[in-house]
Structures
1.
Amino acid sequence: MSALYELPVFGLTLTLAVYLLSYGLYHRSGRPGLLSPVLVSVVVIATVLQLTGMPYALYLEQVALLTLLLGPATVALALPLLRNGRALLASAPAVLGTLLVAGIVSISVTVAAMVALGADEATLRAALPRSVTSPVGLTIAESLGASVPLAVVLTLVSGTLGAVVGPALLSLMRIRDERARGFAIGLTSHGIGTSRVLGESTVSGGWSSAAMVLNALAMTVTLPVVAHLVTG
C-alpha cells in the first residue's frame, strides 16, 4: 500500500477526484448542507489516509499546488465587494452595525463555550477563526500559533451547521429579505453557507459572499487582539 501513496501524484489525484465526485453528488442531491463538497471531501480523504497509513505530512507535500492556490483564492474574495459595492454603500449603517454585532456575538460565544468546556489555550486559539472563510482563517490560525488542522475541523463544523440550520432558522424567524438572509449566512458559515444560499438566489449568494469577505477583514484585525486578551 505504501508504494501507492508514495507516488508523487497520489495525494493530488485523490483530492481532485474526491472533490469532483462530491461536487456532483451535492448538486444531484439538491445541495443539502451535510453533503457540502468540502465536508464530504475532508471525511473521505481523512478515511483514506487512515486506512492506508499515509502520513499527513506526506499528503501535504503532494497537495502543495492546491495549498499554493489559496493565495489567489484569497485575493479573489475581493470580487463580491466590487460587484455589490454600490448596494453595500447604500446600506452602510445596517451593514456596519450587523458586522459589529455579529462579530461581538461570535467571539463571545466562542470564548464562553471554550471556557465552559474547560478547553486549553491552544484549543481556544484554534476555535477563534471558526467563522472566517478557510483561506483567511488558516492564516489567522497560524498567526495565533494555533493548530491549523484543528482550526480547519472547527471551521468545517461551523460552516456545515450554519448551512444546514441557518436558512431554516431564518425562515422560522420570517426573515424573507434576500440581502439579509445572504448577509447573515455569510457572516456565520462562510463558504459552505454561501454555496448553500446561492441555491436560493444570486442576490443572497452575492450578499453572503460580501459578508464573508467583510467578516474576514474584520477578524484579521480583531482576533489577534482577542487572543492576546483571553490567553495572554
2.
Amino acid sequence: MNITKLQTFLTLAECLNFTEAAEQLYCSQPAVSMQIQGLEHDFGVPLFDRVGKKLYLTKQGEQLKPYAEQIVNLLQSAKEHLQQLGSLTYGTLSFGASNFVGVYLLPAMLGHFNRTFPGIKINMNITSSRQLIDMLETNKVEFLIISDQIPVDETRMQAVTFYQDELVLVVKADHRLAHEEECSLEELTAETMILKPKKSATRIYLESKFKEHGISFPSDMEISNLEAIKQGVIHGLGVSIVSKFAVQQEIKSGLLVSVPIKGVALQRGIDYVYLKNKHLSPAAKQFIALLDRQKALIASP
C-alpha cells in the first residue's frame, strides 16, 4: 500500500464522483479507479457502493476514512517538521480557532509571528468547536485555541490557559442602563437578552452563572455570530453579554456602553490544546511560546 492510494481514497470520499476526483488529483478517471481497486484489494473489502449514478461510501469505507486522514496528515506533519528543523524559513503553521479567538484575539499575535518568521505560511481554521475537535483528532491541525468552556478529553489532550477573557454587559448608547454605574441581574430580566445558540460554550457558561444567582432570562434572542450580536445591540434589538476585548472599538466610539453587573464576575480562560502524544512542529512550538508571552502582544484595537 502507498500513500497515493489513501490520498485518492480521501479525495473520492469527499466528492463521491470519479470525474471530479480525477480533476482534483490531476490524473485520469481510470487512474482513480485503479488506485481505489488497489486499496480495496489491499484491505479485502469494498470501500464504495454505486447505486444508480450515485456513489456512496460503504460502512468499511466510512470506518477507514478517519484512519486515512490521520495517516496522510501525519505524513504531511512529518515533512513539515523535518523541513523546519534547520530553520523556520519555510513551512506551515496550521491550527484551529473558535470564532472569537480567531477574529479578535489572535490577529495581533499572528502579525508579530509573521514579521518574525515571514517564510512560515499561516493556516488558521475558524469553525465550530465540534469540528475543531475532529480536526485535532485527525491531525488536520496541530493544535487548537479555544475557550476553556469547550470540553476536551483530558486523558488524551493537554489544555493550557494563556489568557483570561472578561465578559461584559453591553447596551446601546441611549439605553436606560447606559448611564448607570452598575445594574443587577434582576434588572436584566425585563430586557431581551441576545445570546449565542443554546449549544454554544458561551451560552452554556452564561446560563450556569445566571443559575448560580437564581436568574433565568425568559425573553431572549439567539444569534450565532458575534458581529451580528453587536449590531443587534447597536440597533436596539436587545442587550448582550460578550467579550470585553471584542467590543473595545464600539465602546470607544460610543456605539455601545459597558455596564457592570453588581456582584457578578464573568471570566473565561482561553486555552491552547494539543494531543498529548503529538510531536509539535518547530513553528507550532514558537507560536505557543508566543501565546505564553501574550500579555504584551495583544494590542488594543
